[in-house]
Amino acid sequence: MKGRPKKYRYIHNDPKISQFSPRGKPGRPNEINLTLDQYESLRLADFLGLRQVEAAKSMNISQQTFSRILKSARKILTEALVEGKIIKIQGGTYVITDLQKENQP
Known about the structure:
By secondary structure, the chain is an alpha/beta fold. It has a domain at 35-98: Arc Repressor Mutant, subunit A (Orthogonal Bundle). It contains 4 helices and 5 strands. The chain has helices spanning 36-47, 52-59, 63-83, 99-102, and strands spanning 9-11, 19-20, 31-34, 86-89, 94-96. α1 (36-47) packs antiparallel against α2 (52-59). The protein starts with 8 loop residues before the first strand and ends with a helix.
């Protein structure tokens, strides 16, 4: 039995980079995936400094869902930094929106 279908999350910008690779680690590092909705949650909360309620509204999701996405994104980044993994930004349940068009009457 399947659960409820995931609600599309609004992403306001495609990331400028889709992959980060560590330097100084011998051999080929393992990879870890960061979804676009996880990337957007980090961008809104940690980079832009929005409160979770505002960021959740921006992504068209509940604050609880936003909090869960943000927590998982931070865990992925921490794992990549501690273990020297490549971070690939791809996938997820999202729709790219134009923030400027949304704010026009």
